[in-house]
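Below is a typical protein record.
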Amino acid sequence: MRQRPPVLLSALGAVSVGAMTAVQARMNGGLGSESGDGIFAAFVSFGSGLLILVALAPVTPAGRAAMGRLFAGVRERRIPAWMLLGGLAGALTTVTQGLTVGLLGVSLFTVGVVAGQTVGGLVLDRAGYGPAGVVPVTMRRIGGGALALVAVAVGLVGSTVVSVPWSMLTLPFLAGAGIAWQQATNGRLRQRVESAFAATFVNFLGGTVILGVAAAIHIAFVGPPAVLPTNPWLYLGGATGVVYIFVSAGLVRYTGVLLLGLGSVVGLLATSVVLDVAWPTGANLDVPRALIAVAIALIAVLVVVLPRRRPTP
């Protein structure tokens, strides 16, 4: 029986997932903004990630064995079809990054994602959808989720929202809810095939197929992107996604959907502020307000993570 990692270590892993998600959002958002085609940017991101996984699959015995179990499970129908659909949410997230980050900035994009991820995590944990099973909705978990939404509200209040249509936050909210569902679905598949690598491969394969069709239809009606950016960093979104999806698929069975989501919130918010300062998109940024939002989100995670102190008899 494998030893369960410490809760705080798992939470730090969840924070790293959020940090990488923010970095990927900036890369894909920049590619979508500079090329003028968010769907094309999403396809490039997913397609490059799939190529990396195809190249890595035969390199190690563990990778070959995992893919063998995956294909056998699909062929023998031991893996239900719904476990193979995590790429749908990944495709939505990547398209949303390409369409909105250039306008909203990474921080404001993150606000919408946080709201959707928090609500989605609570619902999915209560329903027992994730690999951790039914996670009771305790007052501590409700309090942590509420504090995360307070962090969202703090990030929203201020001058940054004035020039941005509120309707633009709908897509990031849906993407955040999709991320919670994606993490739970990939975690269930990882549990079934005993491999985070195989779960990550399925995610990228499904997303690439969906986005390939969408990009082909879009190009047929609108035409190809007028400009292909020359900045090589903008093409690394797929590689970044491979890493954080792999990590989240392995973590969610230990953390539950909500804790993984809340840890990701801290990484998302903190990294998004750094990115908007160091690699700005042109959107306005209130740094003190953003830092307050990060601090509140961190408290939200600690409320859920830290063990409750039992009264001494």
User: Anything to note?
Assistant: The chain is about 75% helix and 0% strand. The chain has a mean pLDDT of 83. The radius of gyration is 19 Å.
